[in-house]
Amino acid sequence: MPTAREIMTPNAECVNADETVLEAAKRMARLDVGSLPICGTDDRLKGMLTDRDIVVKVLAQDKDPGSCLAGELAQGEAVTIGADDDAREILRTMASHKVRRLPVIDGHKLVGMVALADVARALPDAPVGDLLDTLTSD
To answer: Is the pTM here over 0.85, yes or no?
Structure first.
C-alpha cells in the first residue's frame, strides 16, 4: 500500500499567515491551484486558504484583499495526513472530513500535498469510487 510520501506532490508552497489575501490569490493563479496551506513564521501549518474562502469571506464581505491577511482566514486546526500514512488512511481522512486535498506533515513540517487524483492514480478504482460517492453526496 503506497504512503502519502510516495504519492504526494512534494514541496508544497505555503502562503504566510502575515501575507495578504491578494498576494495569496496571485500565488494561486501563478501555481494554477485552488488552495494553499497557511503557514506561520514557525513553519507550522495554521490552516488552508481556498479560492472559495477568498470569494465568500473576503470579496462578498466587502473586505479589501490587499489588507486582509491570510492568517485571518485560518480557522481551527487543519486536517492533515502523516507522510507515512498509507493510501487507505488518506481515503478515510478525506471521506470523514469531506476534503479532496490534504497537507502532508512529517512531524510538524509541511512536506507536500496529496490530492484525490494522486490517490486515484495509486489505488484500484473501488476505494476511490467509494470516496467520490462520499464527497459528492448530500
So the answer is: no
